[in-house]
Each structure stands twice: as structure tokens, then as C-alpha cells.
Amino acid sequence: MFQATNHGVPQNLVDDMESTVRSLFSLPPQQKLKAARLPDGISGYGFHRISAFCEKLMWSESFTIVGSPLQHFCQLWPQDHTKFCCVTEEYEKEMKRLAARLMWLMLGSLGISKEDIKWAGPRGEFEDASAALQLNSYPACPDPDRTMGLAQHTDSNLLSIIHQSAKASGLQVFREGKDEGRGWLMVPPVPGAFVINVGDFIHILSNGLYQTPLHRAVVNRSQHRVSVAYLYGPPENAQVSPLSKLLGPSCPPLYAPVTWNEYLGTKAKLNNKALQSLRLNAPLN
Ligand SMILES: O=C(O)CCC(=O)C(=O)O
Ligand SMILES: [Fe+2]
């Protein structure tokens, strides 16, 4: 996980997106429920799916957008959805561009080039990538120790681009290790920066060179916190496996090939043990 500045996304667009998110979540509950996520659906208003895996009470709500927000935004704002749609579509466009750029910066630093990933498409722009915009809302909570905003998880996708509101912190990442530094670290909001989170699929592609970190969101007593996560994954049916350029006699592939659709099924069943279930060789330690 790292923070990215100088990313080229206009600050006024990020501000407008945050206002859209605040407007959306401040609608009356019966209005938000008009765009409720169906039990077998992906998009719309509801609770985070991973809520079922955490024993604490989840103190959050979410709204997922896949592709055009038009249908759901018409349900939320029958009169004035146009401006919210424009902002969201423009934001999705900028995120798609930034995500492809980040992919090549990260993979390029491992010596990977466009020819090494077929599903990146002929121009290496990842046209067929799967993507969703996840809007998160964590209202102020009178008893934050007894609740959790978002249960600990790793992101299933390639990478996530997270805008967290500067008004409140809450995102935490788990620092591995054996010393006293091991534990949950707060990721402070840096004005103008995006938090970039490595997902399970970059972990697999890079054969574990980039690690997918465990993270969660906590809530606080006085501030309503919002975040916007752009979730960027491989094309639905592309087989993803550790890149052959990174393998050799002393570097065997650590993960079995998997498609995005297959992996989502595994994740729904095994949650944080899904990645481990693809492991081909036992960890060294
Ligand atoms: O709210 C946050 O900062 C974290 C969001 C997140 O981890 C997610 O949407 O996957
Ligand atoms: Fe996440």
C-alpha cells in the first residue's frame, strides 16, 4: 500500500466526487433503499459483503457502481441526477486511465513489458479490465470500540485507488513482522493523494513480489468519514498466473492459474484464506 501524489487527476473532480458521495449517503434511508443492491447483484446500496465474516457490528454503508451510474442515480435523484452522473462518469474515466498507468509503473519496475500480458490488449491499455466504484460511508459512532467500519480483508482485484476524505482518518493497514512494530497502522489522509492498494491479483501476477496487505476501516466518535475506492481487476475470464518472466529454477510459481470469476467464488467461501488456497508451494518460513 502506498500514497500517490502528482497523479494528474484534477483536484476539483475529486472534490466533486466526494460531494456526490456525501449527498448520496445523506439521502433519507427509504430513498437510498430504492437503489438497494439485490441479493445476487453487484451494484447498488447496501452493506459490505464481507460484513458476514466479522464478529463486531459493522458501522457502515456502501454503494457500488459498475459502469454507468445512470439507472441507480435516477432512482436516488429522480429530478437532478444529471450532475451526479457526469461527475461519477468523469471520475471513472480518470481512474481507468490512472489504474492502467499504475499497472505499468508497478510491473515495469519488475521488468515486465506489454507483450508479457496478453489480456492487457494490443495497446496495453487493459480495455477489458473489470472495474467498480465502491463508495463507503462510516457515520460517527457513539461506541467505536464495539464496532468496525469495514472488516479486515485483502482486496481481491489487481489494485484499488482510494480517495479518503481529509476530514477523518480510519483506514488501517496491517504491518507484518516479528518486532513491536507489528500491528495495525493508521493510513493518514494526505491532501491531494490517493492511497493505492495492491490486490490479490498483483500478488499472484508478481509471484508474491508485491504483497497484498490486510487492511480495515475503523470508525470514530465525532466525524462522518467517506471514501471512494476504484476497484480494478483483470478481465472476467482471463487466466491469471505468475508471470513467466519472473520464474526460474530457483523461483517456482507460487500460485495456481485462476480467473477473476473463479477467484471471486473462492473468496466468497474462504474470505481471507482464498489466496492461500491457490498456493502451490509451502511458504519458506
Ligand atoms: O474506507 C476505506 O478507506 C477502505 C475501503 C476499502 O478497503 C475497500 O473499499 O476495499
Ligand atoms: Fe479494501
Automatic annotation (TrEMBL):
<dbReference type="InterPro" id="IPR044861">
    <property type="entry name" value="IPNS-like_FE2OG_OXY"/>
</dbReference>
<keyword id="KW-0479">Metal-binding</keyword>
<dbReference type="InterPro" id="IPR005123">
    <property type="entry name" value="Oxoglu/Fe-dep_dioxygenase_dom"/>
</dbReference>
<dbReference type="InterPro" id="IPR026992">
    <property type="entry name" value="DIOX_N"/>
</dbReference>
<dbReference type="GO" id="GO:0046872">
    <property type="term" value="F:metal ion binding"/>
</dbReference>
<dbReference type="InterPro" id="IPR027443">
    <property type="entry name" value="IPNS-like_sf"/>
</dbReference>
<keyword id="KW-0408">Iron</keyword>
<feature type="domain" description="Fe2OG dioxygenase">
    <location>
        <begin position="128"/>
        <end position="234"/>
    </location>
</feature>
<comment type="similarity">
    <text>Belongs to the iron/ascorbate-dependent oxidoreductase family.</text>
</comment>
<keyword id="KW-0560">Oxidoreductase</keyword>
<dbReference type="GO" id="GO:0016491">
    <property type="term" value="F:oxidoreductase activity"/>
</dbReference>
<dbReference type="InterPro" id="IPR050231">
    <property type="entry name" value="Iron_ascorbate_oxido_reductase"/>
</dbReference>
<dbReference type="Pfam" id="PF03171">
    <property type="entry name" value="2OG-FeII_Oxy"/>
</dbReference>
<dbReference type="Pfam" id="PF14226">
    <property type="entry name" value="DIOX_N"/>
</dbReference>
<protein>
    <recommendedName>
        <fullName>Fe2OG dioxygenase domain-containing protein</fullName>
    </recommendedName>
</protein>
